[in-house]
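Thread amino acids onto this structure.
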């Protein structure tokens, strides 16, 4: 097994070990993810250095509620995905098979400079899963670390152990999509398996210092039963501990799943209550207007530590150490002495324009 020095990938015997699929390809053939291909005896990343676009988001949109709240994050993705989720809500990028989708090109160093220039505390690999462009994500993360910028992975956690350590060694935070809690759901709806995702979560908790949170998109009639939510949240507390935040977010019909209704707000509130009952200390609702379900509360005295109205912070009652200002109970996460003030803004970044400005600086 080796890593190519010119944008190749982890390979062994002619197939990629980045992904549990272990696609076995003929020379010139692409994997299911679209971005990895076999060239001779090597699997290569065909989209290194290219992106479907760059945008500055609030960090809460990832969603991360306990990682540098209120700060801007420079977000980008590429094309393709190693899952086949029928409900994908970023399908125009993750399901793209057109190289024209990748309109922007940037070196890792240029991305780090742009993040610093725009006042971003972090860079997020998002919109499609960064495990499929691992080499590019790692190189960007290294450049960002050199510039004092943190790196965030928004991922399904579907990655092989051989690549997992390399990938997360360079990440500061992650939001992992725990898409359901049955192998049947993962197999029929996502074209994947649950077990590797659970292995990733155990690895993150017990073998890294990466701050991570979980997101489950609840789809009516498919992964939103009381029994499944009870089993999932009990597993999280038992295997990962009570302080890993869980986000329950609303589905809307998209991609190949347009026959299902939108998730009712009541379903999200029910999931949150099941999580809290099972000992999850920080359970959130998302993709709906629910200030109570989106806010963070002290586990000591019950005070509202961080109020959230969509992506606007309405309250901040943490002291500079990240503890409750009322009772001193620590709140787990990564916090600055004061919150950011980015709010709900979304700002497009044309990397080519930034590169031109840099060249004339």
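Threaded sequence (361 positions):
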């Amino acid at each position: 097994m080796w890593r190519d020095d010119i944008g190749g990938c982890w390979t062994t015997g002619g197939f990629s070990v980045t992904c549990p699929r272990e696609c076995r390809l003929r020379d010139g053939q692409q994997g299911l993810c679209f971005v990895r291909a076999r060239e001779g005896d090597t699997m290569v990343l065909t989209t290194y250095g290219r992106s479907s676009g760059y945008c500055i988001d609030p960090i809460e949109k990832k969603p991360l509620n306990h990682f540098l709240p209120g700060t801007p994050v420079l977000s980008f993705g590429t094309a393709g995905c190693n899952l086949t989720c029928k409900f994908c809500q970023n399908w125009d990028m993750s399901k793209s098979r057109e190289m024209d989708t990748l309109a922007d090109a940037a070196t890792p160093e240029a991305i780090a400079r742009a993040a610093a220039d725009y006042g971003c505390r972090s860079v997020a690999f998002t919109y499609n899963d960064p495990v499929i462009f691992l080499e590019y994500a790692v190189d960007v993360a290294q450049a960002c670390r050199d510039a004092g910028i943190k790196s965030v992975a928004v991922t399904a956690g579907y990655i092989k152990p051989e690549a997992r350590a390399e990938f997360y060694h360079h990440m500061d935070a992650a939001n992992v999509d725990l898409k359901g809690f049955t192998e049947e759901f993962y197999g029929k709806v996502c074209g994947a398996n649950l077990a590797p995702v659970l292995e990733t979560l155990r690895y993150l908790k017990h073998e890294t210092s990466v701050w991570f949170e979980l997101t489950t998109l609840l789809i009516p009639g498919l992964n939103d039963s009381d029994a499944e939510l009870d089993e999932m949240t009990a597993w999280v507390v038992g295997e990962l501990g009570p302080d890993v935040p869980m986000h329950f977010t609303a589905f809307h019909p998209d991609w190949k799943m347009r026959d299902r209704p939108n998730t009712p707000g009541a379903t999200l509130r029910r999931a949150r209550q099941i999580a809290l009952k099972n000992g999850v200390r920080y359970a959130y609702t998302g993709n709906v207007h629910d200030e109570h379900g989106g806010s963070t509360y002290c586990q000591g005295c019950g005070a509202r530590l961080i109020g959230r109205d969509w992506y606007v912070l309405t309250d901040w009652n943490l002291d500079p150490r990240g503890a409750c200002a009322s009772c001193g109970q620590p709140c787990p996460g990564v916090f600055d002495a004061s919150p950011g003030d980015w709010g709900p803004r979304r700002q497009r970044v044309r990397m080519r324009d930034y590169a031109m400005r840099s060249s004339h600086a």
